[in-house]
Amino acid sequence: xxxxxxxxxxxxxxxxxxxxxxxxxxxxxxxxxxxxxxxxxxxxxxxxxxxxxxxxxxxxxxxxxxxxxxxxxxxxxxxxxxxxxxxxxxxxxxxxxxxxxxxxxxxxxxxxxxxxxxxxxxxxxxxxxxxxxxxxxxxxxxxxxxxxxxxxxxxxxxxxxxxxxxxxxxxxxxxxxxxxxxxxxxxxxxxxxxxxxxxxxxxxxxxxxxxxxxxxxxxxxxxxxxxxxxxxxxxxxxxxxxxxxxxxxxxxxxxxxxxxxxxxxxxxxxxxxxxxxxxxxxxxxxxxxxxxxxxxxxxxxxxxxxxxxxxxxxxxxxxxxxxxxxxxxxxxxxxxxxxxxxxxxxxx
Length: 348
Description:
By secondary structure, this protein is of the alpha+beta class. It is built from 10 helices and 13 strands.
């Protein structure tokens, strides 16, 4: 029986190897090409049911303007010689201060009517990462996540411990948790606690001039969450991941499914080990692995060569990109809410 088992194992291994080599005989020829970009910034502001945006030009214009501002902030950092972590933090701080998005001010509410915030950041150069979850008084959770990465031996801190650490590090705090409330979020408490399926998060991925990748994500979590629920946003490998050998990824959507599929790391692994392009890997995960009726959401990703992708399987996703070309020095950008992508020229 042992001899038969060994033969079976060898046969299966041979078939598997043959099958793999027939698809990816040489990773270099089938892999991605250098996009000729000096640096790249990609952002998202959450995914969900956004079909009504096309019928509301005022509302869509506000989101386009916000996406443009976020990209411009990141561009200013990188064009002045800043690095990926600086750009990611600056972009996400902007989102955390903008009530249009579910992060910081404008964060969604828990079942108790409070605000619990999560954030994470990761650098691809050395795989260093930091995250905080369930913080209630940290003004900019992305800065707390970065402090965990830089000034502690840990990767993730939660709740009161995370807040004590943030205060020790001299980060900006708020006295009242209701600082994060807006008329819109307080209206959710009354009207949508039981029925809303809103999922929103903000994120930024960057390829900087030095070829280093950085990913960051920040969120107010799922509307009406209970029992200290934690989604994918602060979970390294689920909602955020960066590796200079592959990609930087930030996710948004129904966090439970993104955790189960380890989406951010999954994408990097498919790119790195299967030789898929960043677009192929991302679309496979979003449209094939995740159930569009349950695991709804999307992601943004950029690879180490400057190729990027922004797929989603929901009604829409607030998203945008900016890159600077190496040869011409031209800066190009665009944004989208539903299927159509627009440029600054289109909005004039």
